[in-house]
Structure formats: C-alpha cells, structure tokens
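Side project, low priority. Logging it here so it doesn't get lost.
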Amino acid sequence: MTIEVAGDVTLRADPYRLMQVISNLVANALRYARDGRDVLVRAGTASVAVFLEVHKEGEPMSGHSCSGFLESFQREDAAEPSRGHLGLGLFIVHEIVRAHGGTVSVESNEVHGTTFRVVLPRTGAL
C-alpha cells in the first residue's frame, strides 16, 4: 500500500468516524485488489475542503456495484459467498461523510481501475 499526503489536511471532524471511513475504504480496496496490485491512498487539499482518494488498479467494479454502491447490503462480489461481509462498508462511508457535510464518489473502469473519492469541508457539520 502506498500513502501520499500533500498540503495541510487538517479539518474539523469526528476522528473516530473518519478513521472508520478510511478503514472501510482501504479494507475494501485491499479485499478486491487482484494479483497483488498496489492500493494507493492519497489525501490533500481542494480549496476549502480536504479530499481522500483510495485507488486500486485492476478489474473495475460491475455497473450495478458502481451505481448502487451507496445502498446497504450491496457487495461488489454479490454472486460469491459473503466471506463474512454484510455489504455495509460503503453505505457506512457514505453516511459518515454525508453527516460531515461532504461527498463520496466512485470512478471505475478497465483502464484506470477504481477510485473512491471523499471530499470533506474543513469546517464539517458535526
């Protein structure tokens, strides 16, 4: 795993919930990374906000998973056994980010892989 931080990424937020966001996104990327490919975690500033990106190379998310990733109980590997996962991780990420006044989005394709992007205002809604 590679971690890159650029600029001042301090913000007003619940540190435990933010750790849950990071943990869920990184665990998800590591779970679905194929062939030992690297997972990249980037954080930086964007105007009056802080962004976090978690990127994995390789196979993209399916169209359904990509469009429905905010729904609870949706897993990327829905056809496979759950391997002990309920499919709540990304839904929880979305709800925590939304509670902080931020946004979460995903881009996924065969050329660039999958990137989840979280944008949080520096003065989040707590």
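Brief comment: Confidence is low (pLDDT under 50) at residues 78-82.
Revisit when time allows.
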